Amino acid sequence: MRDKPEHAELDTALPHIPVAISTRHVHLTQATIDRLFGPGHELRVRAPLLQPGQFAAEETVTLIGPRGRMSHVAIVGPPRSDDQIEVSRTDEFTLGIDAPMRESGDLAGTPGLIMEGPAGQVTVDHGVICALRHIHMSPADADVLGLKNRDRVEVAVESKDRRLIFGDVVVRVSPDYRLELHLDTDEGNAAGLQAGEDGLLLSPTEGRAVLRGRR
User: Fold this and answer.
1) Are 133 and 167 in contact (CB under 8 A)?
2) Largest distance between two CA atoms of the chain
3) Are 141 and 179 in contact (CB under 8 A)?
4) Residue-range domains of the chain with CATH
5) pLDDT tens digits, the chain, 215 residues: what are they?
């Protein structure tokens, strides 16, 4: 952790990035939605998210692990091609699952669990991850910042009572993305952040080199 005075000048020199605190949630295939909520069920939009086309659904699920269960877990729509369950380290302890830190979509070798909805249960044999902290950005944003897809950067975030620098933040670039930093609840709590606060992009870490930043 670095003292605030050392980087005070960065507040006007570097762009501010919207921060999203990502609570535990799931992305589901249509087949899984059908089994949890009934054949042909379509997710209902509760609130649109900043990333175009994505939304928090009215429906929720219950996650059941070897040690415990979690109710009212958010579903992020629209349906995807694979089931993905994103939890924090704290959630892992509650569920009794050891989920790896992964980028979204990197699901090989991940553990599974049971999901429960009003129409029944679904057991998935993989798909549970702790999502690596990351920044969504468009190609135009990446050009302005001098970054490319899968670079790793440091991001300073500041709340009313504390300032914290997160390293190894993965850059994700797509024409479909809007600029937004995603942290999980453990990371947000550590920084004393509330959704809607800004993060400050610092210069890339030494690990930004291609061998580290790309997979």
Assistant:
1) no
2) 58
3) yes
4) 5-20+133-213 (2.40.40.20), 23-131 (no CATH)
5) 334 334 333 344 567 788 888 899 999 999 999 999 999 999 999 999 989 999 999 999 999 999 999 999 999 999 999 999 999 999 999 999 999 999 999 999 999 999 999 999 999 999 999 999 999 999 998 998 889 999 998 888 877 777 788 888 999 999 999 988 898 999 988 988 876 666 766 644 332 222 122 22
